Amino acid sequence: MDLTDDKMDDFLFKGLVIVLIVILGILLVYSYTQVKPETFTQVYLIPDKIVHETAVDELVPVEFEIDNREGKTVEYTYMISLQEPNSSEKTNLIVEKTVVVEDNEKKRIIEQVPVLVISSPFLDDYLEEKKKVLIEVSKPGMEEPYSVWFWIKVK
Predict the structure, then answer these.
(1) Tens of pLDDT, residue by residue, the chain (155 residues)
(2) 101: left (phi over 0), alpha (psi -120 to 50) or beta
(3) The dihedral formed by the CA atoms of 87, 91, 94 and 99, expressed in degrees to the nearest 10
(4) Taking the model in full, what pTM does it have?
(5) Is 92 within 8 Å of 113 (Cβ atoms)?
(6) 3-state secondary structure of 39
(7) How far is CA 59 from CA 15, 40, 70, 73, 149, in A?
(8) Are 107 and 66 in contact (CB under 8 A)?
(9) Which of 5, 11, 51, 100 shows a CA-CA span of 20 to 30 A to 68?
C-alpha cells in the first residue's frame, strides 16, 4: 500500500469533518437567529381583592391585571359587565375603556363599578341569585376576548 494514499484518505476525512462542522455551525446560527419568542397576553384577577357580597347600588372594586408579553406596546380594550346566572347574555355593560400597556409590563386596573338593579316585581328573586362580574379584554385583530370573572351576591 502506498503511503501517499493513506495521507490522501486522512486529508479527505479531515476535510469532510471540517466541512460538516462548518455546515452544522451555520445551521445552528441560522436557527437561533430565526426563532422568534412566543408572544402572549395574560389577564388575571387579584384573588385577595375579589368582593363576594354587596348591597344594591353599592360601588364594588374590581381589580385585575393585564400582563403584556406581545413584544410590542398594545392598546387593550376592557369591558366589565354584570351577567345573570345561566345566561350567556351580557345584561349590563358597566365599564368600557382602553388602556395602553408597554411590552413586558403588568398594568393593574382598578375600577369602582356599581351593581345596578332595575326595579322589577321580581326584585326579591333577582337578589337571591349570584351575579357574574365578567371582565373581557381584547386587542386589535382579536376574534375572541380574554375573559375572567367572579361571582357576587347582591343583597
Answers:
(1) 555 677 777 888 888 889 999 999 998 888 777 777 788 999 999 888 888 888 877 888 999 999 999 999 999 999 999 887 666 665 678 899 999 999 999 999 999 988 765 545 555 555 566 888 899 999 998 899 999 999 988 77
(2) beta
(3) 50
(4) 0.70
(5) no
(6) coil
(7) 77, 32, 33, 31, 17
(8) yes
(9) 51
SS3 26: helix
Residue 118 in 3-state DSSP? coil
Cα separation, 111 vs 46, in Å, equals 13
Tell me if residue 9 falls in helix, strand or coil: helix
Residue 144 contacts by C-beta under 8 Å, 6 or more apart in sequence?
none
Cβ contact 83:131 at 8 Å: yes
Place of cell 503511503: 3
For domain 40-154, give the CATH number: 2.60.40.1710
